[in-house]
Amino acid sequence: MRDHMKQVLKKFTTLILLFSALAMSAAADQSQKIYPVSSPAYRQLLLLSVLSGIAPPSDSGPWSEAELRSLFSRIPKESLGTEALPIYEHLQKQLHTARPNLQVSLQAAPEVYLHTDRSEFFDQDEEWVIDHTSRSAPVDLALEFSFPNAFYGFFDMNIQNNRFYDKVTETTDSSGFFGPPISTNLILDRSADNLDASFPWRGFISMGSDHWNIQLGRDRIRWGNGITGNLLVGDHMDYHEFFKATAFNEWMKATSLIISFIPPSAYLSTADEGSAAPGFSDPISGVELFIAHRFEFTLWDRLNITVSEAIMYQGEGIFLSTLNPFSFYHNLYIPGNANSIAGLDLQYTLAQGAYLYGQFAVDEFAVPGENSTGEGSYPNALACLGGIHLIRPIGSSRIFSLTLEAAYTDPYMYLRDHGLTYPIDFIVANRAFNRSGSNLFDEDVLGFSWGPDTIIVALDAGTTSIDSWDLGMRLTYLAQGCIDQDSQWMSGSDEEPDPASLISPTTVDPADPSKDAVEHQLIISMRAEAPIGTWTTLSGALDWIHRWEPENLMSHPHVSDLQLTLGARITLAAGR
Q1: Of the segments 154-168, 222-236, 265-279, 496-510, which one has the largest average pLDDT value?
Q2: How far apart are CA 279 and CA 267, in angstroms?
Q3: pLDDT in tens, 366-394
Q4: Is the dihedral of CA 174, 179, 185, 187 positive or negative?
Q5: Which of 366, 378, 383 lies closest to 451 in space, CA to CA?
Q6: 318/291 Cα distance (integer angstroms)
Q7: Which CATH superfamily is domain 2-274+284-575 in?
Q8: Which stretch of DSSP H or E encloses residue 214?
């Protein structure tokens, strides 16, 4: 492990020296700088757009600075009230300020976590609101470099705990980090074994011009602005490994995206032979790619219409037809290699400070003439999400927002036939290094973070400001049926229960008779953040979770947990 870390540090030092030699020119324009999906700049752009009465900006991130400038130019400044003008001017300055061609930043972000229920129902990563992906790295060293107007690179070395705790029998168990009543994000316990060596979570190159951009590397992708998740691609995973090409102007955007995943042959046993997954040092063969295109249009200033189509592809090689950004993937007719999915998104600004939005996704649907229920039929797999977002300025440089959102996913949404050697579904995995020599894979749904067989309603309220305190609160109700991302897909049957006739949330999983109830959750969350001086920010989160029939078993008791997160961020940066 130490030799591995020495090699990483040696490479990072070499990169710093190399780009120090290259970046000797004065500060310059960085139009190809990439803003992540969590960027406050995009959040401010969204709020200002709706406050001015125009349609929200493109919701497929991350975004280049050139794209955000283009979207910013649509905002009619004269339509904004005096309360929102400071935010407008702040964002304008941020998007048009020259920066150093080389910048190194160091962030220290210690956090402490406390919770009240130490039982098995709240000791895993996915049972916390502030999960592994949401927790800060205690040390984060980032390098940015650019060649003006053409090229931008970013590398982020985040030193943090692994998702899975290495002191327990099951290598995919995270109870060592999430079970104790008090814990921190500091790497204190068996640090050599529990260090997450999967960094960088953000590391890429970006190139382009005023109306196009290409990004290659690791970052988080998000398609949509849902507060509970998004149906095609969500940003709840640690990272995505991808190639993305976009062309855009003020009124339309075209995106071609390829995300690469570890193929299931690396971590699943075969369905037909029952053979074990390969070991840690065994070679990985084949590819698994999420290949997608997305077309966004703004009509009449107030309406956004977005059409997306994608396939999950598995194979030993690549068909060139799958790489055609103007192909109709469904009509490739290669079910042994690919599973298609499509989406339609709408956003409409009702008036200044109010907009409606909706997402609709189709994974499987019986067209007229096909059996929708009964023996041999395929269960429909549909999902929808919608909400209303209200925005109002409150005082100088502060905006209040209120969002009401609901979502529904069919029982077999994102799942696929397990009769194949490996299922071609939308359950994907990232691989993590572990000193024990074990295969560690974190499996998750690529789209909606809550997975299939779900109904969810959320009410969110919060403030957005410039260099000042912000507060937020969210109330969430969730009903999850018995079918989840680990369930086996099943075709229709003439016997009861017929998988093709099930409606979310289900009280039965035909492949797992042990489940017998819908799990309900009520989650109340509060957030606070405040800058202290120039370099330091304090933050806190308080979450209360109540679960009925946890793990979809009526025999399990009602349980509750109060989770508290306290943290500080200290950021230092230097560049030239």
Answers
A1: 222-236
A2: 9
A3: 776 666 666 777 888 999 999 999 999 98
A4: negative
A5: 383
A6: 11
A7: Capsule assembly protein Wzi (2.40.160.130)
A8: strand 212-219
Q: How many CA atoms lie within 13 A of 488 on its CB side?
A: 11
- What is the distance between the alpha carbons of residues 426 and 106, in angstroms, rounded to a whole number? 36
* For range 417-428, the mean pLDDT: 78
CA–CA separation, 1 and 196 (whole Å): 11
d(C-alpha 290, C-alpha 312), whole Å: 5
Instruction: Let me know how long the chain is.
Output: 576
Mind spelling out the 3-state secondary structure of 81-114? CCCCHHHHHHHHHHHCCCECCEEEEEEECCEEEE
pTM: 0.91
Question: Tokens representing 461?
Answer: 């309220």
Strands (DSSP E) found in 316-453:
338-351, 354-364, 381-393, 398-409, 427-432, 440-445
Q: Please give the Cα distance from 381 to 341 (Å, whole number).
A: 10
Q: For residues 483 and 451, what is the distance between their CA atoms, to the nearest angstrom?
A: 9
Dihedral sign computed on CA atoms, order 363, 365, 370, 374? positive
Structure token digits, residue 501: 């006739």
Coil, strand or helix at 10: helix
- What's the pLDDT score for residue 261? 94
For the chain, domain boundaries: 2-274+284-575
pLDDT digits (tens, 9 = 90+) for 125-156: 899 999 999 999 999 999 999 887 789 999 99
Give the DSSP letter of residue 323: G
**Contact by Cβ (8 Å): 347, 304:** yes
Contact 338, 417 (CB under 8 A): no
- Report whether pLDDT(98) > 90: no
